[in-house]
Each structure stands twice: as C-alpha cells, then as structure tokens.
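Input/output pair, single chain:
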Amino acid sequence: MADPLRAAKRRHFNQHLPYTHPNMAEISIQDLEAYLDEALPAEDMARIEKALRTDAALLRELAALVARRDAGVLTIGGVWRRHRLSCPTRQEWANYLLGTMPEPAADYFRLHVHTVGCRYCLANLTDLQRQHSQHDAPAAKRRRKYFQSSVGRLPPKS
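Output:
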C-alpha cells in the first residue's frame, strides 16, 4: 500500500508547489534553490538544513535540483539568483553609505538588506562600513592637526 504522505510529497514536488515538512514551516523549490546558492538568511539556511537531515524525500528533491543544474537546465529565477541581478553593485552601496542616493533607491537598498536578507549585499555593506570607519579616524586626526597648526595664523576678519 502506498504511503499517503509520500504520495503527497511527490505530487507537491512534481507540481513545484510548496512542500510542508511535518515539523517545519513551508519549504518551497525556490527555497531549496536559494539554499544551494547560499542566498538565504542564516535562520532559513539552518531551518532547511535541519529539515534535510530528517526528511529523505526533501533530500532527494535537493539532489534532483543539483542534478538538473549539473545537466545545464536553466530557469529565469535560477539565473536571476546566481547572477544577483537584483543586488546593487558595490559602488552603489558606497553611494548609499555616503547618502548620495535618491530616497526611493535608498528605500529599495534597505528593503533588499533588511527585509529580503541578502547575505551577499549585507557582507558588502558591512565591509564598506568597516572600511569607512577605518578611514574616518585618520582623516579626523589630520583635520584636527591642520586646524590646531593654523590657529593664530589666519588673518583677522575686517
């Protein structure tokens, strides 16, 4: 006799509908693809990894995804994720940090990092913030030194 849970899983995977793991939140095919690309927030990566350890059907679906990728089967979503087409460039992130970006674009950047949780862009942003703070300290020290050395040398205002 066929296992009804197994049949339901197969039907969901074959139709590319979300699959609900018995003890986990919903895991979709897109979630598994993003898992392979390491494009999910850490909590979601851990949730899927835990589900993969306990569910052989989910593990087989992940193996089938890997096989399709290795065979060269492309999807628009897969190409979009792998080439990070919705991710701002590093230069754009630098402009965001400098505050030179129009507000609608800055809103998208905040959404992309804080809501979508793009780890790639968060890493870029964190690195740029670190570099900016490292460059700020010596520059501030130089400005203070120049200011102090010029005190009393400027002509008085008339």
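The CA atoms of residues 62 and 101 lie 40 Å apart. Residues 119-150 form the longest helix (32 residues).
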